[in-house]
């Protein structure tokens, strides 16, 4: 990689890292794991930078992040970290300011990984069905079904979680 | 829920600004340079191995007058009855466990599908890009505790099959081994029934096959094997289509991959002991 290409990569990484990190966090709920995934994706992207067309660089990086976080064949690697999935804060210690975040985090943590990733890509990153399918290495039909199922599940989880945390914080 | 409601949930979940990253762009670039350097070294050794392979193949053919038995791939042997590029084989004695295991997978597949074309598939590919052609990848840059491999098996007729192979260590787990394998296989999340049996050497096997209605009609044959070496081997077969994202025909019109349930079980059982993780 020549100096100009490396400067381009540096600019890309600096500009896109935060956005990738936020999406990764929404998928996994753990800042450290999200950072690991983003770093992995950017290192791989660096190695492929001379062969990567700039318009697709972000899609490439996003695909690696998602693969790292949710590939079912690698789920076991993070089983210990996923132990956080249960809400870490007791309802008694919840204040009104934190209620919204805890409700959201608790509901998302219970959402199956592929559904969560699909919703993040479709509704947070505003990707099309086809772009989401590419990022998750699945068919467009799978994206549609995971979206519908994910929305339904999330709605139920939010209602359930608000009953636990929302009312407790309001009193 | 509408679009804005879902975004609101994500906004709430993000909360405050992210913590400061532990590594900066310079660290990423340094790590990237190491990857590039290591890859360059591997390719150099691969080229040497290719020449060695041709010499060995010619010598072997002259001596034996036929195809060699396919096995003992970890030793870096060099010929095969199946069709594939010479870059499958890596120099004998190569210290990288990834590449020794690549040879092993290639030999197992060659034995199972004699005469078929085997093509390495990049684990990550974006449309329009020239993808990374490596067959193997570790899960991430720091843990080095598992291997992933993707291969496309081309048959004379019909769609090729995409094989995803993962070898990973068994982690401490609550409950029994069968529950552990069922969790890896997502048996509780999907509508496809999982089945359990034992392998010839006492391996525990969880397998499933057919249309998965929870995944948009995705059709897959999956075997997950817990072995005595403390690793789990997972082999997943899907129909592969040229656009690289349609793993199924979708919406109930899917066809079964030509790599059957019996095939994925046999491949998982036939792979050699896990590589030594560095």
Task: Tell me what you see in this structure.
The complex is a heterodimer of chains A (171) and B (278). Chain A is mostly helical. Helices cover 73% and strands 0% of the residues of chain A. Chain A has seven helices and no strands. Chain A has helices at residues 3-28, 31-48, 57-70, 96-110, 113-124, 129-136, 140-170. The model of chain A is unreliable at 72-89 (pLDDT under 50). Chain B is an alpha+beta fold. Chain B folds into two domains: 1-114, no CATH class; 155-278, Protein Transport Mog1p, Chain A (3-Layer(aba) Sandwich). Chain B is 31% helix and 20% strand. Chain B is built from five helices and eight strands. In chain B, strands 1, 2, 3, 4, 5, 6, 7 and 8 form an eight-stranded antiparallel beta sheet that branches. Residues 49-92, 124-145 and 244-253 of chain B have low confidence and may be disordered. Chains A and B meet through α1, α2, α3, α4 and α5 of A and α1, α2, β4, α4 and β8 of B.
The major beta sheet of chain B can be summarized as:
8 strands, antiparallel
Assembly state (oligomeric): heterodimer
Radius of gyration of chain A: 18 Å
Strand content bin of chain B: 15-25%
List keywords for this structure.
heterodimer; A: 171 residues; Arc Repressor Mutant, subunit A; 2 domains; 7 helices; B: alpha+beta; Protein Transport Mog1p, Chain A; 5 helices; globular; sigma factor activity (chain A); transcription regulation (chain A); RNA_pol_sigma_r3/r4-like (chain A)
